[in-house]
UniProtKB/TrEMBL annotation:
Keyword match Ion transport: yes
GO cellular component: proton-transporting V-type ATPase, V0 domain; vacuolar proton-transporting V-type ATPase complex
Subcellular location, principal: membrane
Family membership noted in the UniProt record: Belongs to the V-ATPase 116 kDa subunit family.
Localisation per UniProt entry: Membrane
Keywords, in A-Z order: Ion transport, Membrane, Transmembrane, Transmembrane helix, Transport
Protein name, per record: V-type ATP synthase subunit I
Superkingdom classification of source: Bacteria
Pfam family, one: V_ATPase_I
């Protein structure tokens, strides 16, 4: 439940092993590469000089960058085509590539597979297009099959041209009204599902004008190609036979393609995987350097992965691995949390990734957020709905589905404490309290819970300051020791007044507050004084103190407003009950049992959807503004291991 410790790994190996080493690193998904050139220039490629390492040290003087090689692009494109042509899904194990990567690709075999599949696929598509074209022509001739005219005779007319087409009922009426104005002979030749079929004969020299007239009548021209010369009925029979033959050919080609898929799927999967890895290798070489004999690689790994990486790379002869805890740059952040807390990492990263020298806030956020959500949205039945919704959503978004399920579980726990089931409070007894019957207690408890959470956030802040070795903010900052004492003293003084009892003497309290204010105002010079640094101020003195005074006012206001802000937890617990009472009242006013049930169902849907979303946002607001602002910066960089682009591998 922390930020995982990282190691900088520097690797020197033989140039001929570079592709295999990178392939292993990619498939392990445990290394984040950084620029080896930067590491070398920063003198971080330090290793013990032994006889076997002399060449490696000498070659460091002749390093250059790798040039990207695009030789695999065409092959990868062809492999992708094969995947698409055979409809091969990404369902092969990565182990296929791990096992076979170092084997030599049989390019002749790949070319033969490609040619076979491509030839079959192209024939199939050509036949499908031909069938579609023939089918359209066939449908046209079916509509005019009762005409006993040879199509060749129509096509041989010297001074006339013709068109077959369909008119709707409305357009037929329009044609009849204007028939005497149209310089053409129009024959009704039949009826179809789309309308009435006509043959239009017109002089060749009015082709353009006739086209405009027919378009104005919404004349739907039938496709009747010139190459068909017999009677429409004869052409229809010929086309029907052609269709049957094409359909038979398509079935045979589809079977051949399926046979190719069964025969070559594994080979294509292997080839595609290897090419994807090789493409990724070429992309990642930009991070590496090389000399005449050796390659130089640098990257971050988790400290727990060290043995795995060493064992993985031990197969390579004359390979040198150097591990460092620092590496000259700030390590990336990889979170390590229990499964129950894992979905809440999403909320942490929305605010920012923890710095490497910062506590991971995920466990604290997880527990406190579940507590706050459950307190505001406590209901056994509605919580169960959230759990079921989370299980369903987890199929598409595992993190959000898991988050929703955990919030639903918290809602069910508080539902049992409140005695609420789908809004009803008379079904089961309350194990702790009924919010609507104890309003003052609920609101006071909410503020008390807020105080506890704020105090915990101060402790987190102190630990983070210690990890960063930040004395200025850790001792004298508004979120440091001075700020914590200031807050506790205020709580004791105000709390004593509220209960009419002296918890802390007023004079002692005022003295502590004054000391804390002085410490916060003079935090920079005090820190420099303790450390022996000079000058005591690093900026304009007057500007520094003006800013410090206003910062004290802002701190006081934020402490008070932040504490009172948690009263919304109790307010939403009451609103949750009140909203259901409103729907219950509306249901009773309808006067029928069925109407009442429908209103209550709709009410629960609205409460789960709308109020659930509002409570989710309010809980997040309390985390981000009232807690995170006191201890969490989130200025880190997330660890991103190298892998196949998009994780795509079949």
């Amino acid at each position: 439940m922390a930020v995982e410790k990282m190691l900088m790994m520097n690797v020197i190996g033989r140039i001929e092993d570079v592709d295999s080493v990178l392939a292993d690193i990619i498939l392990s998904e445990k290394v984040e590469l950084v620029s080896a050139q930067s590491q070398i220039e920063a003198n971080n490629f330090v290793f013990k000089l032994k006889d076997e390492n002399i060449d490696k040290a000498i070659d460091l003087n002749y390093i250059t960058e790798f040039e990207k090689d695009n030789i695999y692009e065409n092959e990868l494109k062809r492999a992708s085509e094969l995947k698409e042509m055979l409809d091969i899904k990404s369902d092969y194990l990565k182990g296929l590539s791990k096992k076979k990567f170092n084997q030599i690709n049989d390019n002749d075999r790949f070319n033969k597979i490609y040619d076979k599949v491509k030839n079959c696929y192209d024939k199939l598509n050509k036949n499908k297009l031909k069938l579609e074209e023939i089918d359209n022509i066939y449908k046209s001739f079916c509509k005019i099959s009762n005409i006993d005219i040879d199509m060749e005779d129509l096509g041989n007319l010297n001074y006339f041209d013709f068109k077959f087409g369909i008119l709707s009922k409305e357009d037929r009426i329009k044609l009849k009204k204007n028939y005497e104005n149209i310089l053409a002979v129009i024959f009704h030749t039949g009826t179809s599902d789309e309308g009435e079929v006509y043959l239009v004969l017109y002089p060749c020299n009015i082709e353009e004008e006739m086209g405009r007239i027919l378009r104005s009548l919404n004349f739907k021209e039938l496709m009747v190609p010139d190459e068909y010369t017999n009677t429409p009925k004869s052409v229809e029979d010929t086309l029907a036979e052609t269709k049957i033959n094409l359909e038979k050919d398509i079935v045979i080609l589809e079977k051949d393609l399926q046979k190719h898929k069964e025969t070559y799927s594994e080979d294509i999967g292997f080839i595609y995987n290897n090419l994807k890895i090789k493409e990724r290798i070429e992309e990642l070489k930009i991070y590496m350097s090389k000399s005449n004999k050796y390659f130089y690689l640098s990257g971050w790994i988790g400290i727990k992965d060290k043995d795995y990486i060493v064992d993985m790379l031990s197969q390579y002869k004359d390979l040198l691995i150097i591990f460092e805890t620092e590496g000259g740059t700030t390590p990336p952040t990889r979170l390590k949390n229990l499964k129950i807390f894992k979905p809440f990492e999403m909320l942490v990263k929305m605010y920012g990734t923890p710095s490497y020298d910062e506590l991971d806030p995920t466990p604290f956020l997880s527990l406190s957020y579940m507590f706050l959500f459950g307190a505001m949205f406590g209901d056994l039945g509605q919580g169960l709905v959230l759990i079921l919704g989370g299980i369903f959503l987890a199929r598409k978004n595992k993190m959000f589905g898991g988050l929703l399920s955990r919030l639903g579980f918290s809602s069910m726990i508080f539902g049992g404490l409140y005695g609420a089931v789908f809004g009803f409070e008379d079904i089961i007894p309350a194990l702790l309290i009924r919010p609507f019957e104890n309003i003052n207690t609920v609101l006071a408890a909410a503020v008390f819970i807020g105080i506890i959470l704020i105090l915990i956030s101060y402790i987190y802040g102190l630990i983070n300051s210690a990890k960063r070795k930040d004395m200025e903010d850790g001792l004298f900052g508004k979120e440091g020791v001075a700020g914590l004492l200031f807050y506790i003293t205020l709580l004791l003084l105000i709390g004593g007044k509220l209960i009419n009892k002296t918890i802390l003497s007023m004079w002692i309290g005022i003295l502590i507050i004054i000391i804390c204010i002085v410490a916060m105002v003079f935090k920079m010079p005090l820190t420099h004084l303790i450390k022996g640094k000079r000058p005591l101020h690093c900026e304009d003195i007057s500007g520094y103190y003006i800013e410090s005074v206003f910062s004290i006012i802002e701190t006081l206001l934020s402490m008070l407003s932040g504490t009172v802000s948690f009263i919304r937890v109790g307010a939403f617990a009451l609103t949750h009950v009140g909203l259901f009472i409103a729907f219950e009242t509306i249901g009773e006013m309808i006067g029928t049992t069925s109407g009442n049930i429908i209103v209550l169902i709709i009410g629960n849907i609205i409460i789960i959807g709308l109020e659930g979303l509002i409570v989710f946002i309010q809980g997040l607001r309390l985390q981000y503004y009232e807690l995170f602002s006191r201890y969490y910066k989130g200025e880190g960089r997330e660890f991103k291991s190298v892998k196949i682009n998009g994780g795509e591998i079949i």
